Amino acid sequence: MPALQAPALRRRGGCATAGTGALPGGLHAVTVPDRLDAPAANAGAGPPAGCFAKLALVIALAASTAFTFTFGLLVTFLGIGVIANVLIAYAVIQVLGERQQNEEHRSQLDV
To answer: Within 13 Å of residue 80, how many CA atoms lie on the same side as its CB?
Structure first.
């Protein structure tokens, strides 16, 4: 199996694109502007609108991934907390029940 290598960046229309845009696994390269803080070459002109649209898509996906990991961690650790609390409550109920049985047994022996 050949090793995967990152495609070389090339400039096209004020944006950096990776190779032909096609990556292994059906993924596509993301186009990003050259510099977001650079002044426009001519008034009102900047990087093509497509660059920002693709950048917005990447940000949305990154936020989605971050949300996914955050949600997974919350479920994991809150779930562990809930399970621990349920086990503690079960143990307390068992102790109280056993104590009641012991008291009943002692009262029968005293008679």
So the answer is: 5
CA distance 102 to 111: 15
Nearest to 30 by CA among 47, 44, 45, 9: 9
CB–CB of 19/4 below 8 Å?
no
pLDDT band, residue 26 (cuts 50/70/90): low
Kindly report the length of the chain.
111
Model's pTM, two decimal places? 0.40
Measured between alpha carbons, how far is 51 from 15 in angstroms, rounded to an integer? 7
Find the mean pLDDT for residues 87-93: 98
**Can you tell me the distance from the alpha carbon of 45 to that of 49, in angstroms, rounded to the nearest whole number?**
10
- For 108: left if phi > 0, alpha if psi spans -120 to 50, otherwise beta; the answer is alpha
- Residue 22 per-residue DSSP state: B
| Residue 47 burial by Cβ neighbours in a 10 Å radius (0-12, 13-18, 19+) | buried
